[in-house]
Each structure stands twice: as structure tokens, then as C-alpha cells.
Amino acid sequence: MSEIDRLTVTSLGADPRSAPLVASAQLLGVAEVVAIDVADVFFVAGTIDDTVRDRLSEVLVDPLLQEGAWGTPADDRSGTVIEAALLPGVTDAVAATVLAVADTLGLAVEQAATGRRYVVHTAGGRALTDDERDRLANRLLSNAVIERVAVGAIEPAFAHASTPTPVERVEVRGLDDDALAALNRERGMALDPAELRAIADWFERAGRAPTDVELETLAQTWSEHCAHKTFRARVVLPDGTLAPSLLGRLRDTTEKLAAPFVRSAFVGNAGIVSFSPGVTVAVKAETHNHPSAIEPFGGANTGVGGVIRDVMGAAHHPIATTDVLCFGPSDLPHHELPPGVIHPRLVRDGVVAGVADYGNKIGLPTVAGAVLYDPGYTANPLVFCGCIGVGADVAPPTGPHPGDLVVVLGGRTGRDGLRGATFSSATMDATTGDVAGASVQIGDPITEKLLIDLLRDATGCWSAITDCGAGGLSSAVGEMAEHTGADVDLALAPLKYPGLAPWEIWLSEAQERMVVAVPPESIERLREHARRTGVELTVLGTFTGDAVLRVRHGDELVLELETSFLHDGRPQRTLPAELPSPRRDGAIPRCDDHAAALLALLAHPNIASKEAIVRRYDHEIRGTTVVRPLVGAALDAPADGVVLAEPSGSVGLAIGHGVNPWYGVADPERMAHAVVDEAIRNVVAVGADPAMVALMDNFSWGDPRRPSTFGELVVTVDAICEASRAYGAPFVSGKDSLNNEYLGADGERHSVPPTLVITAVAHVPDADAAVTPDLKAADDQLVLIGTTRPEFGGSHLGAVLGGFDDPRSGSAPEPDPRAPERYRRLHRALRTGRVRACHDVSEGGLAVALAEMAIGGRLGVSVEQLPVDDPTVALFAESTGRFVCEVAPGDAAWLAAELDEPVHVLGTVVADPVVHVGPCRVGLDAAVRAFGGAS
Amino acid sequence: MSVRPRALVLQAPGTNRDHDAVFALELAGADASIASLLDLADDPAPLDAAQLVVVAGGFSHADALGAGRMFALSLDQVIGDRLRAFVDSGGPVIGICNGFQTLVRAGLLPGALGHNASGSFQCEWVTLDPQPGVCVWTEGVEPVDCPIAHGEGRYVHPDVAELERNGQVALRYRRNPNGSDADIAGVCDPTGVVLGLMPHPENHVIARQHPLHVRGGGGGLGLQLFRRGVEHTRRS
């Protein structure tokens, strides 16, 4: 008879988790909370005697730091006890390690689970109201997506087997459109009427009813997420003419550019380029928005894991990750929080912890990124995760070939990501048979790290590779088998716990799995590599050659579809576009106090230092980070881009981002051009060659079935194609995430602001010549390059001053046709080493750029010569295409000659700690304080 | 011509700075290779042949039970006796970050490592001042600049005075980043051959890696420690 015991482990000193919880409780309107004690709880089941307890305590409790107590703790009368535990079936690395410890020590522990214990103390010991207690329990101390919570001691729950539901056959033949629509709703398939009709017709011809496995597979393969129906849709313009799809335009632009360094664009898991002989670089960026909204830690965590697998799925070895994060205001008053929405500060803290956890543990530097705040992201935070990998510049694997084995590597399959919502509301205890399929999972970076090691060591063992992402095996095997067909047996898949129905195994989104096609003669070699690395390997079936996908569960055939129907049978969508008509009126906000405006801009959350976040990420591992996200004398000033260079090599890679949703609201077309420009400018500023830049696009928008929203996408894509041609920088990969909307209590749908993230990855010919924006020496000259215009549409000066009567006033920055040539010439100038600092001019304009350079160098600036007469325009306009350069005294003329265009000599670097720009005079200390004040 | 000593870098699932350590060791004049505990359980010969051992940094077993605990347990099970014999014979061992946490939990080094005072993982550059004492890894070394990247690096010892008397405090932070007792960044065993430290000297082995390099600045290389370790193998 198995018995259950629990160990509660408490810190001897203050637990560092406590203080942030108290701050967050106050944020949730429970102001009288003065302390929240935290303890870790371990549940074990098996033959638990004193020997087992003692041996486990030795490992789980460090006597210099902690104390442990076995058994359920007595009631704590000093405060309110709240305990939380992961739902059974949610990835729990700690519980798995407890079992590994028991196994190593030969202890009879059969199951393990973990939890956390909180004791909430209030001022004067006042009892919490039921509402306050529930708010803390449900909104701060636990998340119902992955956890259950109890007041007092929680009962443990372990994963138990359940009886699998048998395969169901669902009649679709002879159904009219209404009946198909009802079936669509009932099964949550999110398909169009035309798509449902195509499915019904196919099974009509096949002369049979589909199985649930087949319907789920079609719904998944044809989903917006997998099929990108909007970007592949025919565009209907306002005059009724048809135009090519958005994806078609992007592909066509890249093909016509014919950049010699592009190896693969818009196919497979990632874009691939080659900047140096013998080496290829794979780049990919993904969004993980909805998961991060409902479970910030797990959503961001698995977002990072997923994009790293994309790069592995492109047969490249990951070397770095990036992240661009968009949140609601962190100081949003509790009463303004929409119902059911997690507070933006808790979202931010959870997302940052999730990114840090995965990146730090898997051992990749998290190097580049951005953090944006806007009320438009309160209900729909955005999480863009990117990854860069390297490989050998050899012909890519040509498989799968008929006869190759279908092999799954890595983690086990559970109910992860399957209809989680219906499970999560059930009450759970030790006797509950079902295992919840949380719709968001916690990642397991160590398993993925082992996969990286295995794939690095076992090259040549497979003929094709892909990752298991959305749609799980159905998507991975389905895509690989597109030209060959495959025959797999789901009964062979290793499961986390027994009892999964065939469709659950096939569709499960369990993380940390890769699928490879392995020629039979290589399987033993791969098996040996897998054993040595500690990676689980399972042969599920074979790639056949008859272009039919067959899925069995033991003896039962549960899916049989022609791959041509699965991949090409979906009717193309047609979407109407209504094009935006932005105001371009050149209005200038009224600014009476330029010094106050500069300090307000430096302190604005979008411009202020992100150090508190950046330092949570390991950006040093691999020893390749040459230009870091934070630079300068005190290492607290923002870099434009980052530069990575192998310690043994001389060349580097620069990574930069462009994103500006505020321009997106004002003028999507100009926004699109401006953010391409900014991404490229950021890499050029650190020393990258503008002739060797590859771009990625990531779109997060609202519902594209609204013609005005689709119209924004249409002009945005046209503008980035135009910019791509202008700069000679091809797009090689992209992704769209649509329907980022929230149905408010007002009954209105609220969309995120149009958010386009452009990532530039570029070649740095000489990593030792990388340039940073921090000022280097007093008496140097400061030179502005580019043209300043009255451009304030979507500007940050408008944001801090509220200086417009109508927030849609002003013009978003227009494209500068001279910028591409300017960047080529500036690059040649930077390579001479005579430009001592270089910074792009972006949010907040020239004054902010100069202040950031001054902060970086802990030197002052003295600027008397403004580029235009109107000081507000000179200091704060956000015209694109501009840089500030620092050169030695007398070198301004040399720089002008190099650039072959007029430059503007602004003034000089001074030892005096003051930022003096025309009418604005601010002490360097005040600037440092303002910039560092927010996070 | 002197023969390059053989250095072995130990790793467990989740170790991730093993390749950085190999690069540093090679630069310091050793022939370095990586072995997992799984490899050594199959065949301990690489450990028997090693003249210098590194327990590398990372997140072994995801730090699931607290940093280094599971690594220490399996280390003890698989090679505990061999590693102790190696140390008894004067063989130099360095545990970096997670390797330090592991050696402490395995009982080869004194004290404990708790959560940073900030409560968070921290990645930043620090300056380390070598302390007079018995440590063979830091003897005659100039101050070292290198990054930290850890969440559980607060060094705790119930009797720092005793460590000091024994000359076991090997490295101190010039500016304490994590609340460690007496600014301690690294400690050694009583014989001085086993060093554990939280910062990452393997990530500052060439000048370009220093964040102030672009400003024409810099600081002492972490490479010095690996050079001392390699020199020690030639002495013993």
C-alpha cells in the first residue's frame, strides 16, 4: 500500500521571493499585506519510512540555508495559509528530479509532486476578506491554467492513467452548410465554410466518414496558425481588382533582389544566409502572444523553446536568442484592469522570468531585444522570440526518402496543449483519474539542451529534420511526408502517462521534441549517440513513397489521407482590403520647456533603461558577445545593435530591431518603412555592412477579416517590400500572428496597435572595429548625419507632452531616399576606426540620442548649432535615416567627404557633466537618474 | 618542448559552459576534452588520465532541487572515490558557478550557496581580487575582470574567520553583487588544489571579450587562473 508524505522546506533567512510578492499584492489592491512567507513543498508517494525521509532531507534541505519538516504543518494562526500545486500532467522538472534522486539512492518512491506554501501576514493581523484572499490566491499566488490552489494545506495529486476514448467516426457526407457550421463550432475547428465544404466533398469521394483523428489533423493543418491563410489570401482592393497575396509579394521581392548570400528564404523552419565562406546562419522569430497572456511564465518559456527548435529544425546549431516584448503600463491602477486580464506588471515579470529561465538554462545568450509599453497591450501582451543558429555551408539534406524511418527524439508525449480549458476547471485530488491538458506548458530547457548536443554530434545520421511545434506530430510528420507519404503507429510513441486517445497523441503539443527521417543503415549510429547524450529515441514508422499519410494505433487504421489533399486541398481565401488614409499635416507639438521634456522622455518607460530586465538574461555565455545590449563607461547605456563574434574569429554578426506601433497607429505605411530603416540603421551603427543584411518580419495585428485591418496589413507589406528593394536587404523569414484582440466590457473589440517587428541580421567584417554609441573623449566633434523634418506623428514627444489637440496630428517620418547610399558610405567611414561613437536617432529624437551618448561616456555635450531653426523640431522630431557620430577634433570635414553629402556639425563633447542642446540644459546626473529611474 | 597536460571538463545534463571552459583551457596550454558522468560511468579512463579537472557551469538538472544538488549526488555515485583520490594526490580541480555549487554540495569545498540577495538571476561584470592564501589557482594572479551569471551565488559560511585563518578565501568581489558573506567570490579546500568560484573566468580569455574593450579599456584576464592550473600540473 502506497503512502503519501510531504516535506515543507523553508529558508533560514529571508526568502528572496517574498518581497516582490508583497509589492504585487499591493498592486492588486490588497494594501494591508505586510509579508508573505514562502516555502517549497515536496509530496512523495511510495514506501515512505524514516530512512527515506532522512535520505531525501539530506538532498532537499541544505542545513546552512534551509530547514525542512515532514508531515502536514499545523495550522499557522499568524496569517492566512494558501498553498498551490501544479496540475497533474504539467511539466514538473523538480518532481522528476526528486524521482531521479530516489532512483539514484535506491529509495522506494513511486511518485513525486511539488507545491508552494504561502503565509500571508497583514498589518495588525487583520483577517483578509474572502474577496482579498481569493484575489491573492487566484491572481497572484497561483495560475489556474497550470495550477490548483487551496486555502490551508493542499492535497497532493499525481498523474494517473485514464481510459482512452476510442476513435470516433464523424459523418460529414450529405451535410448542408448549416450542419457543417454546427459541427465546426461543436469541435472548435475554426474552419471557413469553403474549407468545410472541401472536407465534406473529399470524404464523399472517398466513400467514408472521417475519423476524429482526420478531422483534428485537417483543422490543425488548415488553421491560421499553420497555414497562414491571411498572408496567402488573394487581396481584393477597394476598386474590386484582385492583387497577389501578401506572402507572394514578400517572396517575389526577395527572389528579384537575388542577393548572393541568401541560401533559403520563406521555406522550412527558418531563413538561411551565408555571410562568410563555409558558414551559414539560420534566423527565425516567432510570436507566443496568447499563451503569454494567460500564463506569462510558461507562455514566454515555451515561446523561447519553440523558436530555438525552429533553428534546430533548419539543421542549424543555435548560438543566440532575442526577444521583443510589448506590455500594458506597469503602473496601471487595479480598478482599470479589464476583467479576466492579468495585471501588466505581473505579465511582464512572468514573461521576463520565462524568457530568462529558458535562455539561461539552455545556455544561449539572450542578446538583443526591446521592451515596449502601451495601453493597447494590456489585454494582449506580445512576445516575439527570435533565435540565430550557425551551420556548415553544405548542400542541405535531401530527404525524406522512401524507406527512411520516422523517428521522434526528445521529450515524451502528454495531453499538453489539448483543449486545456475544459480540464482546468475540474476539482483535483489524489484520486482524480484524469490528467489535465494544460493549454500552456512549462518548458523543459534541459531536455532541449540535450537535443542540441545530440544534433550537433550526430550530423549525417538523418535525411530530413523538423521540429514538433503547433499541431505536434500531425504537423511535423505531415509536413515531412508531403512528397513521400508515411505510415506511423501511435502506439509506439512514448507517453508521459498512459491513457491518451490516438488523436491526443497525434495532436499533442508536448514540448522539446524533434522528428527526423533516418535511413535504416544510420539508425543504430543515431541510437548510440542518443544513448550517450541521454535523449529518448523512438521509431514511429516509415516514409513510404505513395504520397498517402497513414496513421495507425496498434492494429487500427485511424487516419488515411492523400498528402496532396492535406497540403493543397484548402481553397484559397479572398479578403477585402480597405486602405488607410493617414493624416500627414506636419503639426508640431507645443513645447515650452525643452529641458523638462528631455527629462520626461528619458524617464518614459519606452525610452528609459531596460537594465533591470537585461541583467536577468545571461548575455555573456559562449564568450561571443562583443557589443552588449548595455554599453559605456558604466555599462548602463543602450547599444543600437549587438555584435556577436566567435573568440577565435575576426568577423561578427550584428543583430538589430525596428518596431514602432505608435507610427503604426498614425500611418501604417510610413511605420513599415521606418522600422525597416531603424533595424538596418541599428546594425550599421555597430559596424555591419549594409550590403549584407538579411531581414525578418513579424506581424501582430487584429482581426484581418475587418477590411480596415487587412488594409493596414496590405500597405504595410507593400512598404516593407519597397524598403527591402531600396536597401537591397532581402526578407528571408517571417511570421504573422493575427486576431490579437480583446472583447471589452463595453462590447467592443479592442485590437493591439499595428505591431511590426523587423529583425536585421548582418555581417560585421571586422569584429574588432565594432562601434558603440557612448562618447569617448572630451573635445571630440559631434556630427549629425541625415535630414531633420517636422515629423511628430506617433512621436514620443507627443506622448510625454500630450502636446496635440488631436492625437492623430503630425506626420509619421517619411522615407529618406538617400539613406541607403548614406549607410554604405558611413560603413566605409566606420571601418577606418576614425568614428569614435555612432548612435541612431530614433524615439525622442536628437536630444535623447545625445543624452544617451553622454550617459554612455559619462561626458557632457555642448551643442549650439541646431540642424533646423525650430528648437522643438531640432531636438525631438523623429525623422529616420539619421545618426550622431563622434569624431576627433577636425575630422568632421573628413566625415562629410566620406559621406559625399552635407553633414551638420552640432558641437563638441565636453568634460563638464552637462547635456546642453540648444535651449535645453540638463545636468548629466539628472539625465542618468531620469534614464535609470523607470524599468 | 613541454607536453600539453590533459584537462577534463565534467558535465551533467544542463551543463552549458563546458565548451567555454575547453576554449579557455586550450588557450592556457592544456589539451581539453569533455566527459559526461554518463560517459564516465561507462568508462572512467578519461578521468584516470586527466591531470586537471574542471566542473563546468550551467544548470545541471535544471537546478531543480537547488543548484548543483543532483549533479553532486551523481558525481558522488559515479566518480566520488576517484575524484577524491585525484585531489588527495594534488591534482588541481576548479568548479565554476554551477561547478562550484556542485563541489560544495559534494563536500569537496566548504560552505553553501544561497539565492542572491536581489532574489534574481544577475548577469554583470565584476572585478575579483585574489587573496593571499593556499590556493594554487590564484597564486600570483592579478585582479581578474569577468562576468557573473547566476541566481544562487550568495556564499554563506558559518565561520569565515576560520576560512581566512586557513588561507582558503581565494577571491573576493571588489563590489559585492549578491550579498555573499565577507564579499567571498571563491574558496578553496584546505590543501589549495580545489577552487570553487561563482564568476566565469572562462568568458574573459581574450581582450575583445571585455565590455570596456570598445572604449580602449579592459582588465585582468580570467585566463590567468587556467594558466596557473596548467602550471600546477607541471609542478606536481
From TrEMBL, chain A:
Keyword annotations of the record: ATP-binding, Cytoplasm, Ligase, Magnesium, Metal-binding, Nucleotide-binding, Purine biosynthesis
Molecular function GO terms recorded: ATP binding; metal ion binding; phosphoribosylformylglycinamidine synthase activity
Record-annotated Phosphoribosylformylglycinamidine synthase linker domain positions: 180-229
The UniProt record lists the keyword Transferase: no
Domain PurM-like C-terminal span(s) in chain numbering: 402-552, 779-915
Domain PurM-like N-terminal span(s) in chain numbering: 269-390, 665-762
Transmembrane segments: none
Gene3D superfamilies, alphabetized: Phosphoribosylformylglycinamidine synthase subunit PurS, Phosphoribosylformylglycinamidine synthase, linker domain, PurM-like C-terminal domain, PurM-like, N-terminal domain
Gene Ontology process terms (BP): 'de novo' IMP biosynthetic process
Annotated PANTHER family: PHOSPHORIBOSYLFORMYLGLYCINAMIDINE SYNTHASE SUBUNIT PURL
Listed name of the protein: Unannotated protein
Native organism: freshwater metagenome
From TrEMBL, chain B:
Gene Ontology MF term list: ATP binding; hydrolase activity; phosphoribosylformylglycinamidine synthase activity
Keyword ATP-binding part of the UniProt annotation: yes
Keywords, alphabetical: ATP-binding, Cytoplasm, Glutamine amidotransferase, Hydrolase, Ligase, Nucleotide-binding, Purine biosynthesis
One Pfam family of this chain: GATase_5
Any single biological process term in GO: 'de novo' IMP biosynthetic process
InterPro entries associated with the record: Class_I_gatase-like (IPR029062), PRibForGlyAmidine_synth_PurQ (IPR010075)
Coiled-coil portions: none
Name under which the protein is recorded: Unannotated protein
